[in-house]
Amino acid sequence: MFVVTGHSATAVPAIVAEAGAWLATVERLRVSTAARAAVSRVRLAIERLIAGSTVVDTGQHLVSTASGPIIGQLPDGPVEELLLHAPFHDHSGTALGALLDRYRPRTVSVAVQPGRTIVDPPALERAAAKRDVVLRWHDAGHRYRHGKLIEAVTQTGRWVLTGSANLTGAALLRGIDEGGNSEVGVVANVERSLYPGDGEPIETGSIPALKIISGPGEETPTTDHHPVLLAATLDEQGAAVVVELLPDCHVPDHRRSERVQRPA
Predict the structure, then answer these.
(1) Which CATH class is domain 62-206?
(2) Secondary structure of the chain: what % helix, strand, coil (to 5)?
(3) What are the mean pLDDT values of the chain's consecutive 10-residue runs (264 residues total)?
(4) According to a count of CB atoms within 10 Å of the terminal CB, is the N or C end of the chain lower?
(5) If we measure between CA atoms, which residue out of 195, 37, 29 comes closest to residue 107?
(6) According to the 3-state scheme, what is the secondary structure of the chain?
(7) pTM of the complete model
(8) What strands lie across the sheet with 227-235, from one edge to the other?
C-alpha cells in the first residue's frame, strides 16, 4: 500500500489529482446512493485541494480499468523477473500468460497461501512452460493476505503495481467497457522488494487447487438476471442491505432496501 500526502500550502502529488479523476468514473457505476454520495464528496474535496495547490509529480501513477485494460497501462518490458501475489488467479492461467508475453522474464515467482489462495497450480505451470519461463512457488505465510502485487525486476531497478486487481483476465486484461471489473492500482518504482514470498521454493504438490463458483474474472457473461448487492452497512439499529435487480427483471420496484434489526 502507498500513502501519499499533500497540503495546499506546499504541494500536492499528481496522483491525488489522478485519484480525483478516477472517482468521477466510479460515480457512473452501479453503486448505492450512499456510496455515490460519499464518492462525490471526496472527489469535490480533492478538486478544491488541487485548485489551490501546486501539483508535483512524485513518481507514482494511478491506473484503472476505467481507462482500459490495466496491463496496457503498465511500464514497458522486457523485465528480468516477475514476482506476483494475489488471493485469486484465473483458472486458465490467462492473466499470467499475458504478463509473460508482455514482459518475457526468465523467471516468475508466485507467492501463495496453500489452502487459501484460489489457484490452479498446474494451469499456471503450463502457461509458464509454454513460454519457457521458470516458475517458482513461495509460501506467503499463514496470516491471510488480501493484497495484490505485480513486481518487475529490470536491469535498472524494480517497479510494482499494487491495488485491487487480482491476477485474472477481468481485472488485468479487460477494461470496464469490455466487461472487465472496476479496478484501480498504483504503479511506482521501489528500492526494496514488496514480494511476500518467504524461504525456499515450495513444491507444486503442496499447493491444493482451489476454485470458487464465479470467482473474480471467471464469470461468463449471461442474459440471466441476478440480484446485485450494492451496499451493506451496520449501525446501532442493525444491518441495512441494498440489493438491486437488473432493470429488465420485470420487477416494478427493482431496487430493494431491507433493514435487519440487531437481536435484543
Answers:
(1) alpha beta
(2) 25, 30, 45
(3) 61 94 89 87 94 92 96 97 97 96 98 96 97 98 94 97 96 94 96 94 95 58 62 78 60 43 50
(4) C
(5) 195
(6) CCCCCCCCCCCEEHHHHHHHHHHHHHCCCCCCHHHHHHHHHHHHHHHHHHHCCCEECCCCEEEEHHHCCHHHHCCCCCCCEEEEECCEECCCCHHHHHHHHHHCCCEEEEEECCCCCECCHHHHHHHHHHCCCEEEEEECCCCCCCCEEEEEECCCCEEEEEECCCECHHHHCCCHHHCCCCCEEEEEEECCCCCCCEEEEECHHHCCCCCCCCCCCCCCCCCCCCEEEEEEEEECCEEEEEEEECHHHCCCCCEEEEEEECCC
(7) 0.82
(8) 227-235, 238-245, 255-261
Q: Provide the CA 191 distance to its chain's centre, in angstroms.
A: 22
User: C-alpha grid cell for residue 154?
Assistant: 529490470
Grid cell, residue 143, equals 496470516
Q: φ and ψ at 57, to 5 degrees?
A: -85, 115
pLDDT for residue 251: 36
The letter for the amino acid at 10 is T
Identity of residue 188? A
Phi, psi (5° rounding) for residue 7? -145, 140
Residue type, 31: V
